[in-house]
Design brief:
By secondary structure, this protein is an alpha/beta fold. It folds into two domains: 224 residues, Rossmann fold (3-Layer(aba) Sandwich); 104 residues, Helicase, Ruva Protein, domain 3, CATH 1.10.8. It contains 14 helices and eleven strands. A hairpin with a 4-residue loop joins strand 3 and strand 4. The chain starts with a helix and ends with a helix.
């Protein structure tokens, strides 16, 4: 092993201990959904927001609340509704008649972890306020801008089958999410475990087993994870194939309106680093990239009207891209 990689390996083993504690503590409540828990940890380590999509009852909200419970950090849960106002999210100015001055009352967005439940039920003006928080890590109240905590993560959920009263998320906001995670049903064995656990004696609340400072140190270690040039080229090829599929022998150009943005290249590399870190490795492999590529791409490929008419989804196109691009 190269001396530099050996040094990074020692750092990974040292700084990944809080992540192992978090996984064990989450496992005391969440049965199955290992892929979901893994991606939540990738989001925490890669400093990227997550969009969780699945039918109701799949423990999306429970998983996020459980993760928040394992961190000694501030947590806010926001139920998005059509009548929500930006002030309900970011705060507002309060007039004091005694002093004839305005004071700032900060909203629930000033927390470390934000659970945005049913995010696509809020109108565009609320999404705009959230977009500034997600991208700029600050919010504007009146004429003043207020920075958000260094550890700040939006974990949003949406139910795909409920169309009444929903607002499509704008492409610019979708692009700010590191991953769009599809949450699926548990297996029969896992569902039996859920049945036994949730209908038995009351579960103990999860304990805080990690601090924001430990998470920030782990993030610094993630940034040091080694990525070989061949892996970097592999990531570039995957993203390029969504824009110029013919160059990779793919006949899917008529179905793609816009390919993935350069943010996809950055996010896929960072997410692969976080995935390697969770596995206890100081270097990224092609498997790390492939493990998260669909989650990075499925909300960044915009399909054409023809694709929608033929019920061809962005996920199907991303799967074809991964199959066509040679693995180093």
């Amino acid at each position: 092993m190269h001396p530099e990689i050996r040094q990074i390996q020692e750092m990974v083993e040292r700084e990944s201990e809080p992540i192992r504690r978090i996984r064990l503590e989450v496992g005391t409540v969440i049965v199955g959904q290992d892929a979901l828990v893994l991606r939540l940890l990738v989001g925490v380590l890669a400093d990227g927001h997550l969009l969780l999509e699945g039918v109701p009852g799949l423990a999306k909200t429970l998983a996020v609340k459980t993760l928040a419970g394992t961190l000694n950090a501030k947590f806010s849960r926001l139920q998005f509704t059509p009548d929500l106002l930006p002030a309900d999210l970011i705060g507002t100015l309060i007039y004091n008649p005694k002093t004839a001055e305005f004071t700032t009352r900060k909203g629930p967005v000033f927390a470390n972890l934000i659970l945005a439940d049913e995010i696509n039920r809020a109108p565009a003006k609320v999404q705009s306020a959230l977009l500034e928080a997600m991208q700029e890590r600050q919010v504007t109240i009146g004429e003043a801008s207020h920075p958000l905590p260094e550890l700040f993560l939006v974990l949003a959920t949406q139910n795909p089958i409920e169309q009444e009263g929903t607002y499509p998320l704008p492409e610019a906001q979708l692009d700010r999410f590191l991953l769009k995670v599809k949450v699926d049903y548990p297996s029969r064995e896992e569902e039996r475990q859920i049945l036994d656990r949730m209908t038995g004696p009351p579960l103990q609340a999860v304990r805080p087993v990690a601090t924001p400072e430990e998470i920030l140190r782990a993030r610094s270690a993630v940034r040091m994870v080694y990525v070989d040039d061949k892996i970097r080229e592999y990531v570039l090829d995957i993203v390029s194939a969504t824009r110029r599929p013919k160059e990779f022998g793919l006949e899917i150009a008529p179905w793609i309106s816009y390919g993935a943005s350069p943010r996809a290249t950055l996010y896929l590399t960072t997410a692969a680093k976080a995935h390697a870190f969770i596995q206890g490795r100081a270097y990224v492999t092609p498997d790390d990239v492939k493990a998260l590529a669909l989650d990075v791409l499925r909300h960044r490929i915009l399909t054409t009207y023809e694709a929608e008419a033929k019920e061809i989804t962005a996920e199907q196109l991303a799967t074809q891209v991964l199959e066509a691009v040679p693995v180093p």
